[in-house]
């Protein structure tokens, strides 16, 4: 029997949240991070500045279904009172008591932030729509990643935030998010037990 143990090579990997860790070079996670996550968007200070400067947010892909995350985020943004919130969904007429618009061009004003709840493959067309109306910032929700689209948007002068929840970021910056990640506010998508 051979007692010699091979030492596996590790690589220092920077995670999307900015932390670094050593991963086995052959691990699927190390390969995925190397191949897909080279683009970096605005840092925390820049994201805070975006949220502070914004007066209006359009939610593209908004849903009238209370189980959908866009509904929950829309509820939070409306209750924050900090923004004029517009819902963009060509298949709805009203969401959360507000009119729903078929597209960005139909909004009564140019939104400061276009918050996107669409598939990664749909992001380039949303970027084109945002550019066409003159929106300065595209915010792509948590779990959605399209690096080529982000680079394209930036090349056209758009500020792009990707793979971040605008609700979580707003709550974190404004004291409504506990260090463990729990929202300390009253809004919840979970039904209360009685």
Overall form: elongated
Amount of helix: 25-40%
Count of helix runs: 6
Oligomeric state of the chains in view: single chain
On the 0 to 100 scale, the average pLDDT is: 84
Low-confidence stretches: 178-189
Q: How many beta-strand segments?
A: 9
Structure classification: alpha/beta
Radius of gyration: 19 Å
Q: How are the strands of the biggest sheet laid out side by side?
A: 5-6-4-3-7-8-9
Distance between the termini: 62 Å
How are the SSEs placed, and which strands pair?
Blueprint: E1 10-14, E2 20-24, H1 28-36, H2 44-53, E3 56-60, H3 69-80, E4 84-88, E5 94-95, E6 98-101, E7 113-116, H4 123-133, E8 137-140, H5 147-155, E9 159-161, H6 166-173
Parallel strand pairs: 3-4, 3-7, 4-6, 7-8, 8-9
Antiparallel strand pairs: 1-2, 5-6
Brief synopsis:
With 194 residues, this protein is of the alpha/beta class. Helix content is 30%, strand content 19%. The strands form two sheets. A seven-stranded mixed sheet has the order 5-6-4-3-7-8-9, sandwiched between helices. Strands 1-2 form a two-stranded antiparallel sheet.
Task: Report what the structure shows.
Pfam families: CoA_binding_2 (PF13380). This is CoA-binding protein. InterPro entries: CoA-bd (IPR003781), NAD(P)-bd_dom_sf (IPR036291). Residues 50-144 form the CoA-binding domain. The chain is α/β, with parallel strands linked by helices. 30% of the residues lie in helices and 19% in strands. The protein contains six helices and nine strands; from the N terminus they run ββααβαββββαβαβα. The strands form two sheets. Strands 5-6-4-3-7-8-9 form a seven-stranded mixed sheet, with helices on both faces. Helix 3 (69-80) links the parallel strand 3 (56-60) and strand 4 (84-88). Helix 4 runs parallel beside helix 5 (147-155). The chain is elongated and about 55 Å long.
